[in-house]
């Protein structure tokens, strides 16, 4: 199977995303070719560390890249201040310098945490992403957003830190739990829903092939990366259009907060799946798009085995006011008014500024009262 | 007395440094004019908080800028992880948004800490510097370097975060302890020594007038800012020339580490004063500049009441090996080789790469054995 390369064009900070099989084995050589003489601090989590770290370490060593490994606990709770401090302390104790690299080897959690560390150690070190979850391969490893959570909410602290190379090894997805694969699939569907209706319809046809692996999977990941790269190129710092990538995320984040970031109840991509359905239903409720479009989105995500409704979440949820409160603290608030990603149909998302909080609240009240 | 304005030209991130009397009283109006509709999180320290915070708060309020104040303990030890966490938590709890501003109201410690917070909260908020120490007015508030210290050394964590406005109120220096004024003076002298011999000679003639206040002081601060701005404009991220600003700092940082950042023994600018004399003496020792130039630098700093020799530091110092070790951990190390700012005379500093550590060590051994 062929390796695909997507280039993110950001002038002198441009970088390649390589997507294909057996990239871990080639990682050392691929890095050494582009970044000669670097040493590396690998950040990974306990799951990926146990399964795949020896292969990456061997690959670096074979290419003459000295490395040190930092293993954090798997899970969202590692995106916090104490873990960040542990990571930067380790990088500094290893005497890594500005021109050396941090390698994020894991899912979005590791990518966000390691990227933040790379962005602040010595005011910015080199950075390479080796995403191992589908979500990280199609979303979090591309575009340079990094960060951690605080008591006030998700991703409230961070920096923009573009990687110098992204290696998305599609073989490594074989050990990814099915549920995590589905969660990443939700983010892939997102690009179709935002502005690529053809991709959404292609996924409707090729979903089972993408889940099965093979060339359709590589193609789908590459399409997703290309789609994200295009948005990031036009609006790196999210002053405008990049906000479209938050489709489904305002509701999704509120649900993640409501479930205490408890992965047993909800993982990020699942929150996004429900959030996207809510965004379509809210758009339909506002008479912006058809109920049929909302139904089509829900049907596709449900067919992929994703949760799509509030009652798909195990356990009880807080009331509409509590959800609203957590939405208001979300970072997509500008001078008190709510900014929402709404849609006029499949592939027709848009940024709606000044959405009245009262409308969101009324919609949520209905949803919470009579589900379906 | 006239207010001087120095512009730091960084394309769409350009900003003004205003230097003159009574700028705290005008701060609200000056900010509101440039950044309409912002709210502010003021970060200050216990000393400046007690002396000047009410005036700044009143000035903002009069201009319609809502603000919240965060007071950290005065002193270098506040540039640490726990204090950073306190500051960002407060900014988030106050629900400040991306377009709101953090105001650093204090010396270099507050500037570095608050700037780092501004750089990472919501991946970057607005930022205004109101430096209150001479050192902060001529150095740390200009150029966008921010950061905190870690167990491994000074300023090892941080981001580049350019302010949108710098207000250097020369009246506020009236309450600055004399010793801190002298420390800031050392950084001012640094610009003369790097590449502006005329400014050094001007300071030799006008030193007492600069210490007395008045128009010479404003002129000297503006010249220093202009000098730093020119370097930053050419090399914002310190890939080259900006390293010149570290003249005296490699030795200085090692001395700060050796004295445990204990301000009773040594403050930053004093470390820089001794460090600059050592840099000249080391350059003379290497036959790069004349002993006469080194003597002239020492004489001027000594006349200003600054420490200039190792034995001016109260208490005992560690041996040459320990100092070398701390120099090697300093961030101006590239692939193991030592980078030093050396000089060929007054205003003739240059970046020397690959200075053998053995030579630095031999020089330090001599200095520690037979002072003078
Ligand atoms: N920076 C961005 O632009 C961006 C975008 C989207 C999401 N995110 C962030 O990404 C995070 C979610 O990412 P995620 O879903 O990858 O979570 P994750 O990193 O927690 O990974 C999910 C789980 O899968 C495991 N795992 C990952 N790869 C594996 C593999 N190949 N084999 C076996 N197990 C594997 C992990 O150990 C973890 O238990 C969230 O914190 C979210 O905020 C960031
Ligand atoms: N970011 C940069 O580019 C840069 C450059 C140089 C130095 N620095 C940093 O700056 C720091 C040193 O700055 P500093 O010397 O201003 O230290 P500081 O901030 O600790 O201030 C020195 C002392 O003077 C007090 N003070 C300040 N202004 C006062 C006033 N107007 N009236 C009364 N008291 C006042 C402070 O409370 C403190 O006790 C160091 O941490 C150094 O690393 C940063
Ligand atoms: Zn997401
Ligand atoms: Zn300094």
From TrEMBL, chains A, B:
Q: Which residues bind NAD(+)?
A: 108-112, 132-133, 145, 154
Record pathway: Metabolic intermediate biosynthesis; chorismate biosynthesis; chorismate from D-erythrose 4-phosphate and phosphoenolpyruvate: step 2/7
Cofactors demanded by this protein: Zn(2+); NAD(+); Co(2+)
Its name, as the record gives it, is 3-dehydroquinate synthase
Bound how, and how many: what does the cofactor note say?
Binds 1 divalent metal cation per subunit. Can use either Co(2+) or Zn(2+).
- Membership in a protein family: Belongs to the sugar phosphate cyclases superfamily. Dehydroquinate synthase family.
Q: Which SUPFAM superfamilies match?
A: Dehydroquinate synthase-like
| Molecular function GO terms recorded | 3-dehydroquinate synthase activity; metal ion binding; nucleotide binding
Entry GO terms, CC: cytoplasm
Q: Which Pfam families match?
A: DHQ_synthase, DHQS_C
Q: Where does Zn(2+) bind?
A: 187, 249, 268
Q: What is its main location?
A: cytoplasm
Q: Domain named 3-dehydroquinate synthase N-terminal: which ranges?
A: 70-182
Its UniProt entry gives the catalysed reaction(s) as: 7-phospho-2-dehydro-3-deoxy-D-arabino-heptonate = 3-dehydroquinate + phosphate
Q: Which InterPro entries does its entry note?
A: Dehydroquinate_synthase (IPR050071), DHQ_synth_AroB (IPR016037), DHQ_synth_fam (IPR030963), DHQS/DOIS_N (IPR030960), DHQS_C (IPR056179)
Q: Which organism is it from?
A: Candidatus Tokpelaia hoelldobleri
Segments forming domain 3-dehydroquinate synthase C-terminal: 184-333
Q: What does this protein do?
A: Catalyzes the conversion of 3-deoxy-D-arabino-heptulosonate 7-phosphate (DAHP) to dehydroquinate (DHQ).
Query: Does the keyword section mention Lyase?
Result: yes
Q: Which GO terms describe its biological process?
A: amino acid biosynthetic process; aromatic amino acid family biosynthetic process; chorismate biosynthetic process
Q: Where in the cell is it found?
A: Cytoplasm
- Keyword tags: Amino-acid biosynthesis, Aromatic amino acid biosynthesis, Cobalt, Cytoplasm, Lyase, Metal-binding, NAD, Nucleotide-binding, Zinc
């Amino acid at each position: 199977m062929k390796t695909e390369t997507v280039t993110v064009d950001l002038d002198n900070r441009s970088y390649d995303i390589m997507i294909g099989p057996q990239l871990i084995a080639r990682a050392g050589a691929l890095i050494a070719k582009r970044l000669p003489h670097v040493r590396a601090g690998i950040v990974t989590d306990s799951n990926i560390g146990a399964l795949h770290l020896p292969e990456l370490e061997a690959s670096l060593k074979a290419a003459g890249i000295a490395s040190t490994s930092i293993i954090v606990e798997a899970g969202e709770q590692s995106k916090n201040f104490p873990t960040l401090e542990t990571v930067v302390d380790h990088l500094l104790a290893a005497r890594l310098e500005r021109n050396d690299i941090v390698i994020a080897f894991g899912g979005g959690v590791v990518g966000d945490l390691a990227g933040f560390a790379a962005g602040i150690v010595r005011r910015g070190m080199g950075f390479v992403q080796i995403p191992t979850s589908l979500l990280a391969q199609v979303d979090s490893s591309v575009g340079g957003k990094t960060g951690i959570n605080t008591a006030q909410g998700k991703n409230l602290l961070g920096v923009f830190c573009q990687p110098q190379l992204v290696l998305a090894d599609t073989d490594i997805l074989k050990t990814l739990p099915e549920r995590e694969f589905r969660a990443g699939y939700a983010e892939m569907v997102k690009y179709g829903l935002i502005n690529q209706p053809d991709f959404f319809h292609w996924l409707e046809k090729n979903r089972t092939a993408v889940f099965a692996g093979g060339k359709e999977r590589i193609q789908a990941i590459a399409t997703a990366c290309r789609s994200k790269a295009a948005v990031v190129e036009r609006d790196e710092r999210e002053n405008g259009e990049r906000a479209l990538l938050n489709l489904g995320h305002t509701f999704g984040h509120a649900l993640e907060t409501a479930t205490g970031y408890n992965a047993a109840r909800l993982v990020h991509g699942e929150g996004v799946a429900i959030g996207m359905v809510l965004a379509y239903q809210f758009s339909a409720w506002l008479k912006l798009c058809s109920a049929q479009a909302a139904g089509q989105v829900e049907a596709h995500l449900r067919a992929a085995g994703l949760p799509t409704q509030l009652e798909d979440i195990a356990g009880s949820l807080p009331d509409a006011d509590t959800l609203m409160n957590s939405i208001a603290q979300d970072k997509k608030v500008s001078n008190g008014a709510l900014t929402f990603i709404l849609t006029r149909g499949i592939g027709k998302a848009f940024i709606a500024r000044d959405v009245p909080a009262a409308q969101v609240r009324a919609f949520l009240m209905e949803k919470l009262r009579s589900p379906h």
